[in-house]
Amino acid sequence: VTPKVTTLGQIPIAMTSFSTPVLAAASGEFVTKAVGQSSTVQGGFNTLTFTIKPSMSVNSGTLISIAGLTGSGTPDVASLAVTGTGFTSGVWTQATGTLVLTVSTALVSTADTVFSIQLTNPFAQQPARTPTI
Predict the structure, then answer these.
(1) pLDDT tens digit string along 3-42?
(2) Cβ atoms within 10 Å, residue 126
(3) What whole-number distance in Å separates Cα of residue 72 and Cα of residue 32?
(4) 18: exposed, middle or buried (C-beta count within 10 Å: 0-12, 13-18, 19+)?
(5) pTM to 2 decimals?
(6) Whole-angstrom Cα distance, residue 107 to residue 50?
(7) Which of 14, 40, 47, 80 could form a disulfide with 5 if both were Cys (CB 3.0 to 4.6 A apart)?
């Protein structure tokens, strides 16, 4: 973007760039990403426990998606219960195996955030899934 400086009469007097770029946004990543499960029984309840730690603080209200949990027997849920820290509920979409969480308490870069959800395992055997965040 090249700023345009004008005078009162809207006549351009300068068409040069400022010396310092602005409006850059830092991108973060999760330096800790771990998931575990409580059960492998077909059709059984399975508590998935996630441990994450961002490289920079994440403000409340931020959306975080966990995808790749396909094959679950849990139907779509508009407000899936989340236990632990950082989140209170999430939106679960069965067809895509996606959980969208809204950060309720800011996540800090100095500590792990641990939270759990409960899904129903597939009713037939399937290979394990590796979710992404």
Answers:
(1) 555 555 555 555 556 667 776 666 778 999 999 999 999 9
(2) 12
(3) 24
(4) exposed
(5) 0.80
(6) 14
(7) 14
